[in-house]
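Q: Focus on the chain.
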Amino acid sequence: MSFDGVVTRAVVHELKEKLVRGRITKIYQPTQSELILVVRHKGKNEQLLLSVHPNYARMHLTETSVQNPKEPPMFCMLLRKHLVGGFITGIEQVDMERIVHVKVRGKDEIGDETNKVLVIEIMGKHSNIILLDEENRILDSIKHLPPSQNSYRTVMPGHQYVAPPDQGKMNPLKMESLDFIKKIDFNSGKIDKQIVQLVMGFSPMIAREMTHQAHLGSNEKYQMVFESFQEKLKNHEYTPVIYRNNKERFYVFELEHFQAETDTYSSVSEMLDQFFAAKAERDRVKQQVSDLTKWLKNERDKNERKIKKHQDTLQKAKLADSYRHKGELLTANMHVVKKGDDSVKVIDYYDPDQKEIEIELDPNKSPSENAQKFFQTYQKLKKSKQVVQEEIKKAENEIQYFDQLLQQLETAREEDIEEIREELQEEGYLKKQRTAKKKRGKHLPNPEKYIASDGTVIYVGKNNKQNEYLTNRLANRNDIWLHAKDIPGSHVVIRSTKPAEDTLMEAAQLAAYFSKGKQSSSVPVDFTEVRHVKKPKGAKPGFVIYDHQKTLFVTPDEQVIRKLKLNREEESGHQM
């Protein structure tokens, strides 16, 4: 994990300057794994994000706004009781571990001064946030750890706090470089793994950087590299960087072994906020829509099973003419058949060679009844063929619709989810939920806005309500409309009648990126004027037909999308 002891030290150094002597004014718990503490410091509100997410555990200042639940969880309410109104007196890292103590001085119900400690343990899936009283007793924690789960320590209200077990590593701030060299076996190889096992707070990322800078050279070379990192740590000489390649990474030092495009930031929190914002929002959205995603997949699977069943019926329907054929032959040869026969051989006068054919019969039926059964089966199969073909088409449309919604959920913002639920309720798929209060005004869909390199506005619909609003109401008839060809995706509109070629390509990037072809290369994207886009009567929400189109081929590039989003944020900043 990139968030190692070194990053923790950099964050703590920054938080000391920003939060110590600040007053905690509000506490929120937007999800089961996240807390936000609003701290008033030097006339400014700072938001401290604490996360124990198994994949995104971290702590840093954030400017990202999140939606809070109507009813705060119990742990949030307990923190409000003990910490709101208190002053942060200290923020300390335990050695070089990913454990931070936030000390808060406040007052209890009768006005007596109290001192609490909020312990943040950043340890992947074992991460936790624990509130301690003055006697180091646990008041509560965001995750409980009973004795049955861990014999070393118990994390439950009322128990004494016990820190995670010491791993026996050496603190790089206190160890001598000669000790570092003596502990490494340079003949056994895997030096980077040895560094991780030896040095407290060092992740595989910084260990690989050390071996890269030393070029697997002499002991003296490794000593120089270690002393260089040690000096940076002691003097807090950080360079927050995000490395953007196939897999994004971040760190607080420049790492030479990464051959990737980089973004450098002025603060560690800004870097972490940028790195985790989209990932954390996707996770929050995923939690909120897990039930909806499951329901859509189940409905999609039901329709696939329907199609398979109908296709089996179609295969049987292909035999319809053979039943009519047998019925006519049996009628023509009724005189040679008697009740009780289980088969009869007759000449097939439809066959040019006049070969004999054997017809199986129901011995419990008369010859006339057997013939009538063949004709009835023929009529049934003939009718079922037309009905089944219509049902298959209907099921295929349903699958296409559910695929479209599933794709929209993959890229949905938190504000988009409710509109998707509303659409399913309006279409009769979900029951409408009763609300105690009536809505004052109808909420207008809010397509996402991007700014092209030349300043042209581009809109992207993130669900069907936004797609229809964007195409049918917001866009001018001569604006340029784009959509990924023949696959589920967003409606994209360029607010221009004659966009520059670069702007057209950027809009095509958006159409490809917000489509089912996001992970593909050379995605075809159709574009035409809005006036050539029509919704067929009775079609599903978001479904349109269009003509007069031309096609571009683009490979979705997240860097381009990020740039267009950044242009939007810069424009918003200038307008404020």
Q: What stands out?
A: The longest strand covers residues 23-31. The chain is about 40% helix and 20% strand.
